[in-house]
UniProtKB/TrEMBL annotation:
Residue numbers bearing the 4-aspartylphosphate modification: 57
A Pfam family hit: Response_reg
Annotated keywords: DNA-binding, Phosphoprotein, Transcription, Transcription regulation
A GO molecular-function descriptor: DNA-binding transcription factor activity
Protein name: DNA-binding response regulator
UniProt-listed InterPro entries: CheY-like_superfamily (IPR011006), Homeodomain-like_sf (IPR009057), HTH_AraC (IPR018060), Sig_transdc_resp-reg_receiver (IPR001789), Tscrpt_reg_AraC-type_HTH (IPR020449)
CDD domains cross-referenced by the UniProt entry: REC_YesN-like (cd17536)
Every HTH araC/xylS-type domain range: 422-520
GO process terms (BP): phosphorelay signal transduction system
Length: 525
């Protein structure tokens, strides 16, 4: 899932720098793609950096924020906008809100203020991204239907626009026929519901291998045992073909024959080309023919496969959104709901839903929790649901996939929290002689103060105040043992304004006064 892109429009360089640092250090999935000091420069940047969100001040030279947002609404009506303003400019801010600004940030603003507003922006961004993915999925399913109909010479919208759309899609592309060995299928005696699982598994295996190789390619189920692969010309080399064959056998125990069908095929040539290479595939390697009844189910199978692929993408977006927005409770609720829905499905649907869930979980692990573990088939579970499994076995397998994901997620979260606490402790060690408030440290590590307080105690076993006090007293003990500094000088050196208060706190920790502690070091030993 991509990070949201932010353009900062602000005429004060130091404020721009501070905002950029907040985004660079933050955990909400945003990245700064550009900066501008006025609306005119920002408009020139929009097309170049294509941001998802604009943070803009109102009072700026050359072109102020109101005029800038007005131009944005004409050219980019869907772009998210957050207004930066001072109290004196509130009337301007109201005008900007009428132009569709998402929210306001009142300057001077704290890290917590920025995080609250950005949380709102993140929710809107993920909603927008999810809708875009759904629309793309619908367009892809429509295109798949038209391509499949053209390959099988079935009725479809033979309009000039439809043919142009297919010709455009096939321009500079080459086609490959992927034929499952029917002898392997016959041995297992797969039924229609079993074939849906096999088709879904194979399509994911092939597309993951192609994606891992960095190829822009698309796989289409044409008939129950045949796929057509559409790829850029001269990209599916012998090594990739062999990897696909090996993975098909390793995961599914099905031999796969791969045949090139040529490049730059026009929409009107598809049916003839498909028949030609289908016959060639049937005549090679002991592959059996396909019955008419099986072929007749192809349209419904193709649509189902496309819907299943879209479901995987939607699940992944939901998982990533919950993680990036630190919504642990929402993540758990989502996974619980998915397992309940799965348990209520028919056995055939249950297997596919379980595999879809597993692929989405593994995809999220690959992208967010363990991105260093990049392998071509990282999103494909090693032990996929089997055609002979019962409903209980499928549910148990799916529950294990979720449990493994949550274990990895919790470890990742703990590791992230440990790093934050390490940074907090380091800050305390370096600033204990200053005021060193909880809000200061929380600001430094970009966390909400309340959340930081709970996290700190959970990680260290001490409250923040108790920890800082102990650090200061330990430093005071070192100074008492090793220097001749006066008591009030030591109190001042470790961040206490009142020597008497320092003495009382020291007594509570060491059960003696600072003077007694110092004299004790001189006692014979």
């Amino acid at each position: 899932m991509p990070k949201g892109k932010v353009l900062i429009v602000e005429d004060q360089p130091n404020f721009r720098k501070g905002l950029r640092k907040m985004f660079e250090d933050g955990q909400q999935g945003w990245t700064v793609v550009g900066e501008a000091s006025n609306g005119q420069d920002a408009l020139a940047l929009i097309k170049q950096v294509q941001p998802d969100l604009v943070l803009t001040d109102i009072r700026m030279p050359i072109m102020d924020g109101i005029e800038f947002v007005g131009h944005l609404r004409q050219s980019h009506p869907e772009l998210l906008v957050i207004i930066l303003t001072g109290y004196k400019n509130f009337e301007y801010a109201q005008a900007a809100v009428r132009l569709g600004a998402l929210d306001l940030l009142i300057k001077p603003c704290t890290e917590q203020d920025v995080q609250q507003v950005m949380s709102k922006a993140s929710e809107r961004f993920y909603e927008k991204y999810s809708k875009q993915q759904q629309q793309l999925g619908q367009q892809r399913r429509q295109q798949d239907q038209e391509l499949r109909s053209a390959l099988l010479n079935l009725p479809y919208t033979h309009s000039t626009d439809a043919e142009k759309s297919l010709d455009s899609m096939l321009s500079n592309k080459e086609l490959w026929l992927l034929q499952m060995n029917n002898e392997d299928l016959a041995i297992k005696d797969y039924g229609i519901s079993d074939m849906r699982l096999i088709q879904f598994a194979l399509s994911n295996i092939v597309e993951e291998l192609l994606k891992g190789a960095g190829l822009d390619a698309h796989l289409l189920l044409v008939e129950h045992d045949r796929f057509v692969l559409v790829s850029e010309c001269h990209t599916v080399d012998a090594a990739i073909q062999e990897a696909i064959r090996q993975a098909s056998w390793e995961y599914l125990k099905i031999h796969l024959n791969i045949h090139p069908m040529g490049a730059d095929v026009s929409a009107t040539q598809l049916a003839e080309r498909y028949v030609k290479f289908k016959e060639a595939a049937l005549s090679s390697g002991g592959v059996l023919g396909t019955s008419g009844s099986e072929t007749g189910n192809g349209s419904s199978m193709t649509m189902t496969l496309s819907l299943n692929q879209s479901k995987v993408n939607e699940l992944e977006v939901q998982l990533m959104s919950a993680i990036l927005m630190n919504q642990e409770e929402s993540l758990q609720q989502l996974l619980d709901r998915l397992l309940i829905e799965l348990s209520n499905a028919s056995l055939a649907d249950m297997k596919i839903q379980a595999l879809s869930l597993s692929i989405a979980l593994l995809g999220t692990i690959q992208k967010q929790l363990a991105p260093e573990e990049q392998t071509s088939l990282a999103r494909i579970p090693g032990d996929m649901p089997q055609t002979h499994w019962t409903a209980e076995e499928v549910c148990h397998w799916a529950s294990e996939q979720v449990a493994n994901f949550l274990l990895l997620f919790n470890n990742w979260q703990a590791s992230k929290n440990d790093n934050l606490i390490e940074r907090a402790v380091k800050y305390i060690e370096e600033h204990y002689n200053e005021e060193c408030r909880l809000t200061d440290v929380a600001f430094h590590i970009h966390l909400n103060a309340s959340y930081f307080s709970v996290l700190f105690k959970k990680s260290t076993g001490e409250s923040f105040t108790r920890f800082v006090t102990r650090v200061r007293m330990d430093k005071a003990a070192i100074l008492l043992r090793n220097t001749d500094m006066k008591i009030f000088e030591i109190a001042c050196a470790i961040g206490f304004d009142e020597p008497n208060y320092f003495t009382n706190v020291f007594k509570q920790q060491y059960l003696m006064s600072p003077k007694e502690y110092r004299n004790g070091r001189l006692a014979p030993g």
